[in-house]
Amino acid sequence: MNNISLAAVGGIPITAIVLIVVAAVFLLSLLIVVLSRYRKCPSDKIMVVYGKVGTNADGSPRSARCIHGGAAFIWPVIQSFTYLDLTPLTINVDLESALSHQNIRVDVPSRFTVGISTEPGVMQNAAERLLGLRTQEISELAKDIMVGQLRLVIATMDIEEINTDRDKFLEAVAHNVETELKKIGLRLINVNVTDIKDESGYIEALGKEAAAKAINDAKQSVAEKDRDGASGAAKAHKDERISVAASDATAVEGENRSKVAIAQSDADRREREAEATRRATAAERTAEARALEEAYAAQQSAEQARAAREEATAQADIIVKARIEKERMELAAEAQAEQSRRLAKGEADAIFAKMEAQARGIQEILEKQAEGFGKLITAAGGDAAAAVQFILADKIEELVKIQVEAVKNLQIDKITVWDSMGGDNGSSTTANFLSGMMKSIPPLAETFKLAGMQLPEFLGKDLTPTTAVIAADTSTAVTDDAVTED
Question: Of 106, 113, 75, 107, which is closest to residue 92 (Cα–Cα)?
Fold first, then answer.
């Protein structure tokens, strides 16, 4: 019994159930595949099916099948699809120096609006030549065609035709351009020429000629109308003056009678007004006198009160201002005194710091000098006199140089020697002058004596060598032509 229940369910064999399930799954998968490969074409696009899409009438294989406004089943593996956008393209063509039929070069800036055509044959051309191109590439391709055809149309027309008969020009451009665009699958939607200019100014001259003619015609018409109007106006003015004069005469007569009545009425009115004015003026003056009397009394009371108030205000202002000024001056004096104290303390601290630093510097110098002198005495074997001799021996060259410097920079060429040449020894005036000048320099031994010191014996007691050294060093700065002798 169990085997029988497994082999059949409800009287249906298991094998049949499996086959049914497999068939259902297959059909469902097939339906999903069919639905996924069934593509609908939007209204603003062209669906291009390519791959194995059938044959042409002559038996050659078709390159593509174009569908617009419908749907198609795309067979997997052997077919694929893509879309061509039907959005219009606006292309600006700034054509320059195009040669017209009269050999005059013109500039024709224009704007073209094109789009992919939905005509069966042209649509097939678009699928074969534009599929896969970007919008910019399609625009460039169409622009090249437009420039060529625009030049071709301009070459067959005169300037007058292009400028005046604009419809004929646009019709020729549209016919030529659209014929060429259809070869790549495009159609011309609109063409607009913004302006036409030529290098020679011929178009501008034509415009000026037409404008001048129109202006002259208009002036002539205006003059004729003015003449007719002036004639009619003169006649109407004459009739008007006759009619007005008659009406004026009747009106003046009536006005005079009316003026008499008006004058009588005005006299009565003015008399009554004068009486009423007199009574009113008397009453007004009486009332004004009473009002002034009351006003003066009130003003007197107000002035007394104002005087008392101003007196109290003045006293309060003076006392308060004086007290405030006193407190301000006290605070200012205290602040200035505090500032002076702080400045004095700062200056004293600065002077003290400066003097302390100078003292430390002098102390350091003296300590270093003392340390150097100590080492020098130690090097001299403890003999202070020998140490001093070492120092003098080291400084002797500098001392001699200082003595020489006394006459070294003397401007010899600026000195004039006046002498009677009466010397006993027969020496020259220049030699005597230089000898006397060198003798005026204190000897080295005398310089030491003036300083309270004695020249060491190892330098010698004869001062002649020192003088000879100074004279020899000085003679290098003297030239023969630097002194003028008279």
Answer: 113
